Amino acid sequence: MRAMRWRGSGRPLELVECPVPRPGRGELLLKVLACGVCRTDLHIADGELAPTCACVVPGHEIVATVAALGDGVTGWQAGDHVGVPWLGWACGECDDCRRGRENLCARAVFTGHGRDGGYASHALAHASFCIPLPPEGDPVETAPLLCAGLIGWRALKAAGDDARVIGLYGFGASAHLIAQVAKAQGRRVFAMTRPGDTARQAFALSLGVEWAGSTDAAPPDALDAAILFAPDGALVPLALSRVRRGGRVVCAGIHMSDIPAFPYSLLWGEREVRSVANLTRADAKEFFDFVRQHPVRSHTTAYPLDGANEALDALRRGTFDGAAVLVP
């Protein structure tokens, strides 16, 4: 098999040839059809989110077919289409898991971080943490749904069902999907991009958002909630200043630069700031049930597997709309 392997912060991923692994008990061997390139992968490559092992194959937006089953696996068969998200395994025994918060499990293992992911021709995954996918779906368009879509869905839920006016800060892979979801739910959506990024603002408007402008511009109306997809901590106080009393700022990224000090008056009035951490299998079921009824369109740029470094650099520079996807 071929894989792009991370071997240290600041170093480009290396293309390696290695034997196809055998699935262990409870695992599936997967033939990768497509794997999305997520900003979390960029945080790993740039050393901002260190993996738990010395070298790892990144990638956690995997669309694949089942190639082989390990011992004890039921409910799957060879040829099934499957999705593999960021949460690769949780213990099921700790207090958080028992409370339905497996996303907070202290022993959780994450795909492409604590175990090899989908920047490869083949991958292993725990069968019970895989998501069934319909065989007719386009793998490239489906791949971003498995993290950009899922974490966006969890962030939108965190914003609250009563949040009718939503501001999205950073209009990349997650925001371009969740803008469509929020519109389908009947919410008003405003998009905020880097100052001067008129191309990204035009992209947001093409997807039906009501208004698009710079992060330093005031939206047309006060926000019920703001969702921060951009990993810039300076946006937190700025977003608070745009949220009405009783509103909420949701930080959706797994990594963010430091939040600067801000006056208490921005928080006063029962405003809230909260983070979103990882995802659960229940999130995946809810989200994919929703998009079956309300399809969303992924805007993607495809790269070959050995173009992973090019894709990461394009994500770093923000040179494409939507999401990048590797096709082995």
TrEMBL record:
<keyword id="KW-0560">Oxidoreductase</keyword>
<keyword id="KW-0479">Metal-binding</keyword>
<dbReference type="Pfam" id="PF08240">
    <property type="entry name" value="ADH_N"/>
</dbReference>
<keyword id="KW-0862">Zinc</keyword>
<dbReference type="InterPro" id="IPR011032">
    <property type="entry name" value="GroES-like_sf"/>
</dbReference>
<comment type="similarity">
    <text>Belongs to the zinc-containing alcohol dehydrogenase family.</text>
</comment>
<dbReference type="InterPro" id="IPR014187">
    <property type="entry name" value="ADH_Zn_typ-2"/>
</dbReference>
<dbReference type="InterPro" id="IPR013154">
    <property type="entry name" value="ADH-like_N"/>
</dbReference>
<dbReference type="InterPro" id="IPR036291">
    <property type="entry name" value="NAD(P)-bd_dom_sf"/>
</dbReference>
<feature type="domain" description="Alcohol dehydrogenase-like N-terminal">
    <location>
        <begin position="24"/>
        <end position="134"/>
    </location>
</feature>
<protein>
    <submittedName>
        <fullName>Zinc-dependent alcohol dehydrogenase family protein</fullName>
    </submittedName>
</protein>
